[in-house]
Fold these 3 entries.
Entry 1:
Amino acid sequence: MLEPAYFNQDKLYEAYKKIYTENNDLYLYIYYPQKDFYPYISNNDSEFLQFVSKDSKGNLLGFFTGYINRGYELLEKFEVINFTGKPNIIFSKDIEAYFDEVFIYKNLRKIEFSCIEQNPVLNMYRRLVKKLNGNEVGISRNSVKLTDGKYYNNVLFEIFKEDYLAFKKL
């Protein structure tokens, strides 16, 4: 079930705290290069589109966020994190519901995002982008500095509204 992140900040902060204290490998790919310990959560959806995924018992499954660039009608810096670390049907449906928010309700024309090439979630992003008729634009070499002080390659992606709607057959 998709819910606004603003109303779930305490659970969201606890999930991030767990990542920081128990899974530094994942933490490395979340924050770069600064060490912010919690994500910024906006109190409105005019600049940021932020939702959490929850199961029927109210347990937090994941977090979706992106910056709305109204001038270009696109969602930038899209990020998704699955706190369970495993595939989940509810979480998968919530990803689609988030894209509905972007393309149908907010009427944005495009999503642009990137992923560090060494991030274990990269293959999930590649499958998702392919499924939604999006594009892997390319790789920017040694362009992102992570909290370990090293530079990493960044894989760039885009998904257009018309391609997403074709996937949904709308």
Note: The mean pLDDT is 89.
Entry 2:
Amino acid sequence: MPRRGERRRGFRHEDAEAGPPRIGARQVVASDARGRKRTLVLDPAAFTCRVLAQQLADEWVEYVEVTSRRVGTATGYRQAVTLLCRFVDDTLQGGASAASLAEADPDISEVLLAWEHSLCRSGQSARPGRERSHHSSGL
């Protein structure tokens, strides 16, 4: 039985290529179909709803690390976070900076519902062989 401190955990965020976790732009290292590592980046500073973007980016990093998703799936989830944050910026405009999962005002659930409806109206789900709106709304 290992002694205290002798257990090792294989956390992906300790990978030297990924840099420090949850500071600035978020990075995920995922494998492609050939097993090569790819680094994906999501920068919350690119959005007016920075706090919400940080929260979603942190969840994105954690989910991809815990589930060992491949680069294609991780890219799809990153795109969903990006699309949602752009929608929040456009919809809330001046109030976007106050958007947060932890705050009641503005009501993110209402914005999320409007975003989901906009995905259906935009025809993103009508692309043959792709169900982007399904991936996007499944945050």
Note: The radius of gyration is 17 Å.
Entry 3:
Amino acid sequence: MKLIWPFNLFAKKNPTQNKKAVQAMETDSIHRDRLPWEEWEKIMEEDMDENEIIEKEKNKLSVIEYNEAKKQGCIIPCDFKNTFFASRFLSMEINHFLNNNYTYPDKAKLLANCTLSLRIKKGGARNFRKVFVSNNNKESEFNIKEHLIVDDSVEGAWQAFIFQSYIDKINSIKLYFLFSKDDVKSVKTLGNEDLSLELQNYDITPYVGKYKNKYFISYCTFSQWGGLIRQNIEITLANNRITTYRVFQGINIYSYDCGFMI
């Protein structure tokens, strides 16, 4: 297994400024043999601004707290009901989602009087789909901190994550959220490779829990450019609104790259 950079840290405004990073990416053009976390860390630290350094330290603290929470038994496998309904929700037709035509999630909901719409934005070789929220004649792109009311519980945090995951999936190319062995069976690559049997060998169990005042969620995705990745999220709430929602760790379990340039 390889640790990989959380995407919010890895994405640079202008990565070409860091010649070492560019050289490393060119050497690793198909990403199958990504550099270990420690080497990327040294390269990217040279071009980090103050905010990124602060974020990096927050991520380190979150990893420590998550591991301590696991030791104390605060992090447990997500129950069957929530994984089952989460998988169903993420496979729902987009029109049902936009029209709020569902009963789950029920502990993470849009603010009253909010409606959703989809916008298509052209960029490069593909179109980008963005979810917008209209409320009192004001329209803005969906923001989980601004537009959701969330029950202050482990189940509420999980459902908020599921809601955000649906929106992330809308703008992705064959991104799979894997909560069970049945989800693995649906994985198909852009080259129509069937990796389901191979992926069955890995633990994709989602984990949830609360430690101190933080909720933690650990889950697996399969992407066309990266493969099977376990990501860990930290969520905090205040007055039933999300105040923190961030990926603090990514672990590459099974490396894969489809080879297509999009």
Note: The CA atoms of residues 55 and 86 lie 29 Å apart.
